[in-house]
Amino acid sequence: MRSRLAWLVAGLGLAAAAAARFLRRPRREADDSRADELRQRIAESRAVVDEREDFEEAETPVDEAPDPEARRREVHERGRASIERMKRDD
Measuring CA to CA, which residue among 58, 35, 38 is closest to residue 46? Predict the structure, then answer.
């Protein structure tokens, strides 16, 4: 008796699953304008990535940059030389 009841419940479950699968409403298609908008945004982001790569190629890498202390000393020396010239011109 129990096995018949189990088979009956299992059969009803399978029938319900099959009916739900075949009788459900067809899915609505997504709004194409949203898809087009997303495609446009993706294309724009790719252009930005390309621009950024071009920009970064023109930059000097940190390991190739000149020593900031040497640059500072050079600027101070030029400033002192300018001050000395101005004093002599007076």
Answer: 38
First to last CA, the chain: 121
- Which whole number is the average pLDDT over 78-89? 93
Type of residue at 68: P
Residue 86: HSE in the Cβ half-sphere, 13 Å Cα cutoff? 6
Q: Letter for the amino acid at 80?
A: R
Rounded distance between C-alpha atoms, residue 43 and residue 51, angstroms: 13
| Residues 59, 61, 67, 68, CA torsion sign | positive
Report field, pTM of the whole predicted structure over 0.70: no
pLDDT band of 31, cuts 50, 70, 90? low
